[in-house]
Specification:
Layout: E1 12-17, H1 32-47, E2 51-56, E3 64-67, E4 73-76, E5 87-88, E6 93-97, E7 100-112, E8 118-125, H2 148-168, E9 172-178, H3 184-192, H4 209-215, E10 216-219, E11 230-232, H5 233-240, H6 246-253, E12 257-259, H7 260-266, E13 270-273, H8 276-285, E14 292-293, H9 306-315, H10 329-332, H11 335-357, E15 367-371, H12 387-396, E16 400-404, H13 412-427, E17 433-437, H14 442-451, E18 454-457, H15 469-475, E19 480-483, H16 488-491, E20 498-501, H17 509-528, H18 537-550, H19 555-566
Parallel strand pairs: 1-2, 1-9, 2-8, 9-10, 10-13, 13-14, 15-16, 15-18, 16-17, 18-19, 19-20
Antiparallel strand pairs: 3-4, 5-7, 6-7, 7-8, 11-12
Helix pairs in contact: 1-19, 2-3, 2-5, 9-11, 11-14, 14-15, 15-18
The structure holds pyridoxal-5'-phosphate (PLP).
Length: about 575
């Protein structure tokens, strides 16, 4: 029996994503977008919501990160062998790119849910004997560049993906685009469902836009105009030739350039942003479109460390399938047991930091955790704006910092930030214990979000569309100290789930840094050391993070909303 057989009978939602985080050993992801895609499929497995995920095999992986003695990021190739994790697909399909036939095959990865459900994930691959050597590389590098190579990747994903699903015999009821990279799939659907010339009355278009719109939904993730994928029509014509007449394409994707977001917006009945704030920003950026808000969520079992899982299994059985049950964490989970579980998670992080960096952390002092893709708008340097002030705060009430994160190889600003952070670590030696964990991945992320005492996030608003690592922290009873942007606008209840950073009246780097220091010095650290409010203040905060935030910001709520709103047509 073909390994695909169990998945071919029930109509499924095809979920397209350029990147997907399946497990740490499979480096087909670069950051939050891929982790969200993985959590989406993991939640669908638990909920038995029939999905088929489509992504690229990215055999070359992202990269393995180390640092040179100066603290500069060193990128080593991180290839992976699909054969060790997946089975080859029985079909292949062709598309024409730059006047050459490119064959697309792929791999079936079966995602195994921890509750017994499974979902198929197709990883598209052009590294086939029949292809020109250049074309064999198309699915090799994740986010290759922003020119023709990238457009070819997106064509393989969108057009190749739809054709392969068809060739394999999938029955599909809906197509979900996770970000605009896969929007060419809607053009393939337009062609597929086009009317034959003899059916048309004079002047009628062969393309059935309403029909395709009914099949597609689109989740946008980008809060700034410059962040949207665009391709000049010169490149588009070179790569795709007359796939769709240029005049039609311009109507759907923009006059000046092919804007993948605009294309997806015009060809999707249901469109959503990834947090309330992000949906508002998107509506302003693209007036005239109805943009819903489905705030992201994280997968409960994946993002809860083993000691916390055991705790919830004991006191809130069923929490993994119905994370709403976590709303009772503030009264049904004993404080001592919660503190004990957190201590175990913290010890695991301290051991990991020791093994990987040689830095010894103190279990009695709070750990501030900060990990994410290192790029300018995330402002990892905000905490280090005033080293003297930081030293003074730590002199009164000690704290420690654990950092992690990769910069995209072409993001020079991000790479400079990493180097700068290493310089700060050296400057603060003796005053603040700090470590930078190399090679941030799913496993490091879980260790950090569960073993830290405070999860720090300081993006430049409104650039954090959602952010998800703070949600992961909440699953482990770790409160966030964060700038009010993305999901935190909804998640922050001051002093109950964590704290906000920044003021309504003053904005800018310096004002935000001052606000961060003030909060740390006057609220967070005194509360941690039992010098502010009730004796059980800190553990009540931990309970608050779980009860108010993990119960809501989870992938199960997110998928139930997609299922009832986006996939219901
Ligand atoms: C969760 C996660 C992210 C995204 O975190 P943000 O808070 O959204 O920036 C990125 N990388 C990895 C490995 C993650 O686990």
């Amino acid at each position: 029996m073909s390994p695909l057989e169990p998945y071919l009978h029930t109509p499924r939602v095809a979920y397209f994503s350029m990147e997907i985080a399946l497990e740490s050993a499979i480096p087909t992801y670069a950051g939050g977008l891929g982790v969200l895609a993985g959590d989406t499929v993991r939640a669908a497995a638990d909920l038995e919501l029939p999905l088929v995920a489509v992504s690229l095999v990215s055999r070359g992986g992202h990269f393995r990160q180390t640092f040179d003695p100066a603290g500069r990021q060193v990128e080593q190739p991180a290839p992976w062998e699909p054969r060790e994790h997946a089975t080859p697909l029985a079909a292949k399909v062709a598309l024409t790119l730059e006047e050459r036939e490119v064959w697309v095959g792929g791999w079936l990865y079966v995602l195994q849910g921890h509750l017994g459900g499974t979902q198929p994930v197709l990883l598209l691959d052009t590294d086939l004997d029949e292809n020109h050597p250049d074309d064999r590389q198309i699915t090799h590098r994740l986010y290759g560049d922003d020119g023709p190579y990238r457009l070819k990747q997106e064509a393989v994903l969108g057009i190749g993906g739809v054709r392969l699903l068809q060739a394999l015999g999938f029955r599909l009821r809906q197509y979900h685009m996770n970000e605009g990279h896969s929007a060419l799939l809607a053009l393939e659907l337009l062609r597929r469902h086009a009317h034959r010339p003899e059916e048309l009355r004079p002047g009628e278009s062969p393309y059935d836009v309403p029909m395709v719109r009914g099949l597609c939904c689109f989740t946008t993730h980008t809060p700034v105009e410059a962040g949207h994928d665009r391709f000049s029509y010169t490149v588009v014509q070179r790569v795709l030739d007359d796939f769709i007449p240029l005049a039609v394409l311009k109507q759907l994707a923009g006059e000046d350039a092919l804007n993948m977001t605009r294309l997806a917006l015009n060809l999707s009945e249901y469109v959503n942003g990834v947090a309330q704030r992000h949906a508002e920003v998107s509506r302003r950026m693209f007036p005239g479109y109805r943009v819903h808000a489905v705030t992201n969520g994280v997968h409960p079992h994946t993002w809860t460390a083993p000691p916390l899982r055991a705790l919830y299994d004991r006191y809130l059985p069923g929490w993994c399938h119905e994370p709403e049950l976590l709303v009772r964490a503030d009264c049904c989970v004993p404080q001592a047991a919660l503190l004990q579980a957190h201590t175990e998670a913290k010890q695991a992080l301290i051991a990991l930091v020791g093994a990987r960096t040689g830095v010894t952390l103190d279990p009695a002092a709070p750990i501030l955790g900060f990990a994410r893709r290192m790029t300018a708008y995330k402002r990892p340097d905000l905490l280090f704006s005033d080293l003297e002030r930081l030293k003074a705060i730590a002199g009164t009430r000690p704290f420690q910092v654990v950092l992690a994160g990769k910069a995209h190889p072409r993001d020079e600003g991000g790479k400079r930030l990493i180097e700068q952070l290493h310089r700060q670590i050296r400057r603060l030696a003796g005053s603040v214990s700090m470590a930078y964990l190399p090679d941030y991945d799913l496993d490091t992320a879980l260790a950090m979000v569960s073993g830290s005492d405070v999860w720090l996030n300081t993006p430049l608003p409104p650039l954090e569309a959602s952010g998800t690592s703070g949600m992961k922290a909440a699953f482990n009873g770790v409160p966030s100290l964060s700038v009010l942007d993305g999901w935190w606008v909804e998640g922050c209840i001051e002093g109950v789930t964590g704290w906000s950073v920044g003021s309504a009246t003053e904005v800018g780097h310096e004002a935000d840094a001052r606000a961060l220091y003030d909060k740390l010095e006057q609220v967070v650290l005194p509360l941690f050391y039992g010098q502010l409010g009730a004796a059980d203040g800190w553990v009540r905060l931990m309970q608050g993070a779980i009860a108010k935030n993990a119960s809501f910001f989870n992938s199960h709520r997110m998928m139930r909303r997609y299922a009832t709103e986006a996939y219901s047509t």
